[in-house]
Amino acid sequence: MPRVHLVDATYELFRAWFAVPSSRLPDGTEVGATRGVLGTLIKLVQNEGATHVACATDHVIRSFRNALYDGYKTESGVPAELLSQFPLVEEGIRALGLVVWPMVEFEADDALASGAKRFAPEAEQVLLATPDKDLAQCVRGQHVVMLDRRRNTVLDEDAVRAKYGVLPASIADWLALVGDAADGYPGLAGWGEKSAARVLEVFGSIERIPESSKDWPANLVRGADRLATTLAASKAEALLYKQLALLRTDVPLTETLDDLEYKGTPPEFRAFCAKIGAEGLPERIARWL
Question: Which SMART domains does the entry link to (predicted)?
């Protein structure tokens, strides 16, 4: 059984945007981040031993969640020269010989969650290559884990609990209570990371938290009365934020496990690299189809 790497290519593109020097084609098109992503994916399959790989992207930033909540993240504030590289990096990933899932209605995180659910039964291990805390809800024991390639760290279920104070099954509830600035929802006033973790450690989910702190264990958390009052008054908001935080696992992915196997890079990768002025990248390829 193979190990499956599911890569958050949106994260990789943003990371490259900030880490890789600008590079422009003669017509002024910015391609530096695309070159950076392709470089790190070549490293993944050649130096890090990945054999079965799929990459998920946010082909557009908006998703079905924007219809649920007006404040959810949009493309506002994202540089146009970064947005323009999403279709370019998708083309490059395909040319490299890897599967790419470009998301429109869903988000890249939903594709990764769906891929983890789909391929976990067939894989020795599924590695979600992202540091995004949203994906912590997908971790299962040591079988489905998060891989932070930049820090070279792996989060299994015990590590998720140590880092966030809750089990993966409670991550969406935890995010709903504390908020997620990156995704654009605020959480509930007064609910911090530690207080949310302590309460969820006992009750597991927002729906199971009693409205009165009198029904909470004594001395569970400082300011229990205030927290309970806030949650009771804002229960609908908390459940909406949880809906935003919960990743979908029903994205229609058509590939089989065999389709995810990296069999080598097609010859057309040279043409793509010439297109983006990265003629040196093909020289790093060890396996060609």
Answer: 53EXOc (SM00475), HhH2 (SM00279)
CA 173 to chain CA centroid, nearest Å:
17
Q: Per residue in 224-276, pLDDT tens?
A: 999 999 999 999 999 999 999 999 999 999 999 999 999 999 999 999 999 99
Whether 158 and 28 map to the same domain: the answer is: yes
Q: Strand 99-103 relative to strand 125-129: parallel, antiparallel, unpaired?
A: unpaired
Number of domains comprising the chain: 2
CB-based burial of residue 174 (10 Å sphere; 0-12 exposed, 13-18 middle, 19+ buried)? buried
Query: 């029903």: which residue's tokens?
Result: 250
Domain of 85: which CATH number?
Answer: 3.40.50.1010
Question: Based on the domain organization, do 101 and 233 belong to the same domain?
Answer: no
Q: Is residue 289 part of a domain?
A: no
Where is 146: in which H helix or E strand? strand 144-148
Starting from the edge strand earliest in sequence, which strands make up the sheet with 99-103, in order?
Answer: 99-103, 52-58, 3-8, 125-129, 144-148, 153-155
